[in-house]
Design brief:
With 653 residues, the chain is α+β, with helices and mostly antiparallel strands. Helices cover 25% and strands 24% of the residues. α3 runs parallel beside α5, α7 packs antiparallel against α8 and α12 packs parallel to α14.
Length: 653
């Protein structure tokens, strides 16, 4: 398989090329587009020539994507899309490239997406064929992943498996070869950076991307190129999306413009020409365009004359001499009271660029971008902030002990090592699929420690992502790193309450008795418990017994944990803790006293706890009354005091 049979991957990250730059490079780009138009066949495709680096199908998709990105209204694009929509792809690369072009054109690509996903191997990668016969390769995996992303069909499961495969094939020097274990090459590494860059934050790929960028920089030749025109184009696009020396970008651009042929092509090859045109167009629109005069500010950053180092935003413009030295649109000192850009500030108010509504006194000054957004005379700078470590600490008896494994409902501390204290930090926890479960934004003042409780997280490996943010509020991520913690499966039944209703009765009374248990599951896995219960009379004779089994699910952290009150007749709550009815039976009490109730709870054959309660039956009492009258006889017409005594005596039958 040729290492350059990929068009889809690199085009994935170049959607910013919609604004046509007004720059000397535009003539170079226009000349290249003319070459592509002139070599297109009447059917809408491009044929294979003696100098072609790729098949006609791949050459056609490469040219079509270039027109979509660089010149979307060009008539050559319409006929190219018509041709590609009728062609059956033979390989994963062909299928992925066809999917990307047609998805951007607005055509229905549901079937193509399904076919691409079905061709993914169990190791997360893709091979050259659609039937799964050949092993996974880096180029095919990048091609498929990039196409799915362009088609907005890169679901989390597919993406995480693909990225896992790619990270497993990255070499220790930061680069990639064609397959695992092969030496790193500029071609594969540049495409990997372009494809992985959009997933940097979600999957915590900063270290891998920086390592790959460092490898690319080391491969640049003295002439600014990377060997061939198409390899230089790919490397330039990758470096435009990473933090690199602007001089190296300029050298790469200069190499490409210098190697264009008189006919407008590079190497008289449609594929190479298509890639170079994207790279040159990209260098003007991404925002890291070239500083031609070396004054530290590029055209996209506001330099109104990038051929003169004394002309740039912020330069002194003290006289009316026919030259606008500070690029504020006015020659000489500011006197205008008009608010041209509608930001609420006029030049006389201190607006240092009244043609840009984002630049005015009080605006957020994005650091280190060469632009003075808040008009204080200097571009804000931020000292390099480095995250040095992420340490998880277990809280044991008031002491924090380093640990990486935890159980459910366990409090831990996430300690962030950072080169400067009190830097804003974004911290979030995500599961194995990359789904963010919880964002931590509360930490003790003056520290970089974040308390976290595992609650009922399912057992598994979780990723901790920390981002050091610009303290100036620009929203820039200054550094990022990841760590992990493991939640172990743990069985924990912390409490249970034995419920009996009614708890009091009388001898000879007949009652509808109800016995149950209210039990909490603070495990992070389902637990099956067996409960054995017995009810006896005061003489030890068994009245009622039974064996009950129930599976308790882990508590749902999104639901309230209000207790059930079944035994007071108010209904059974479905929220944890759970109510387990052990028995409902009718009993006539024949013996007074305490009737013991015992419930024993087991998991498998292991006793977890014993619960004790009782039903009290009061004795049935007969009242035997007697009376006496003193004196018993009263003479007529005689005043006497009479005492009547009434005696009540309880007699138990």
């Amino acid at each position: 398989m040729q290492k350059i049979n990929l068009t889809i991957a690199l085009s994935f990250t170049i959607f910013l090329a919609a604004i046509a730059p007004v720059n000397a490079q535009q003539a170079t780009i226009d000349s290249g587009l003319t070459y592509l138009q002139s070599t297109q066949l009447i059917e809408g495709n491009w044929s294979e020539t003696a100098t072609s680096l790729n098949s006609p199908f791949q050459t056609t998709t490469a040219a079509a994507r270039t027109f979509q990105l660089v010149s979307p209204t060009n008539p050559a694009l319409t006929s190219a899309i018509t041709f590609l929509s009728t062609q059956p792809p033979n390989t994963v690369d062909d299928l992925a490239q066809q999917l990307e072009v047609l998805a951007v054109s607005g055509a229905s690509v549901t079937n193509l997406v399904t076919t691409v996903k079905a061709a993914q191997r169990t190791d997360g990668g893709w091979g050259i064929d659609l039937n799964g016969t050949f092993q996974s390769e880096v180029i095919d995996t990048l091609s498929a992943l990039g196409a799915l992303e362009v088609a907005n069909s890169a679901d989390t499961t597919t993406t995480s498996k693909a990225i896992g495969y790619l990270l497993g094939t990255q070499n220790t020097d930061g680069g990639w070869g064609g397959t695992s274990g092969q030496p790193s090459e500029t071609f594969y590494t540049a495409i990997a950076v372009l494809i992985l860059k959009p997933f940097q934050v979600t999957f915590g790929l900063s270290n891998q991307i920086v390592s790959a960028s460092t490898f690319l920089i080391s491969k640049q030749n003295i002439d600014g190129g990377f060997g061939t025109a198409f390899e230089t184009a790919l490397a330039l696009q990758a470096m435009l999306r990473t933090v690199v020396d602007p001089v190296k970008l300029s050298n790469a651009v200069n190499y490409l413009t210098a190697t264009q042929s008189l006919g407008g092509s590079w190497d008289d090859d449609v594929y190479s020409t298509a890639l170079v045109l994207r790279a040159l167009n990209d260098s003007l629109s991404v925002g890291q365009d070239i500083d031609n005069d070396g004054d530290g500010i590029t055209e996209n950053q506001g330099d109104c004359d990038d051929t003169n180092a004394s002309i740039f935003p912020g330069a002194a413009d003290l006289t009316v001499d026919g030259i606008d030295q500070n690029c504020d649109g006015i020659d000489g000192p500011v006197t205008s009271t008009l608010d041209s850009d509608g930001d609420g500030f006029t030049p006389i108010d201190g607006d240092c660029n009244d043609a840009n509504g984002n630049i005015h006194p009080g605006a957020v000054d994005i650091p280190n971008n060469g632009i003075d957004e808040n008009c204080d005379g200097v571009d804000a700078t931020v000292t390099t902030i480095n995250l040095t470590s992420i340490t998880t600490l277990e809280v044991v008896g008031g002491t924090n002990i380093p640990a990486t494994t935890f159980g459910p409902f366990e409090t831990l501390i996430i300690d962030i090592g950072v080169s400067e204290l009190d830097i804003p930090i974004n911290l979030f926890i995500s599961d194995a699929t990359g789904t963010i479960l919880q964002t931590l934004d509360v930490r003790p003042e003056g520290t970089d420690q974040f308390p976290f409780n595992t609650h009922s997280l399912a057992p598994g490996l979780y990723t901790i992502t920390a981002q050091a943010m610009d303290p100036g509020g620009s929203g820039l991520i200054l550094d990022e790193m990841t760590s992990s913690l493991t939640v172990n499966p743990v069985v924990d039944l912390p409490e249970a309450i034995l419920g009996i209703f009614p708890e009091f009765s009388n001898v000879t009374a007949t009652e509808e008795e109800r016995v149950g248990v209210v039990i909490s599951n603070r495990s992070n896995i389902p637990v099956t418990v067996t409960i054995d219960h017995e009810v006896k009379n005061p003489s030890g004779v068994l009245i009622n017994s039974g064996l009950t089994s129930i599976t308790l699910n882990p508590p749902d952290p999104t639901l309230p944990t209000t207790s059930s009150d079944f035994f007071r007749g108010k209904g059974v709550s479905e929220q944890p803790p759970s109510t387990v009815i052990l028995s409902q039976f009718t009993h006539t009490f024949t013996e007074s006293g305490v009737h013991p109730v015992v419930a024993t709870i087991f998991i498998d054959t292991t006793l977890q706890m014993t619960l004790n309660g009782s039903i009290t039956a009061a004795p049935a009492i007969r009242i035997d009354p007697s009376k006496s009258l003193v004196p018993g006889v009263i003479p007529p017409s005689e005043d006497k005091q009479i005492r009547i005594d009434i005696h009540l005596e309880g007699v138990e039958p």
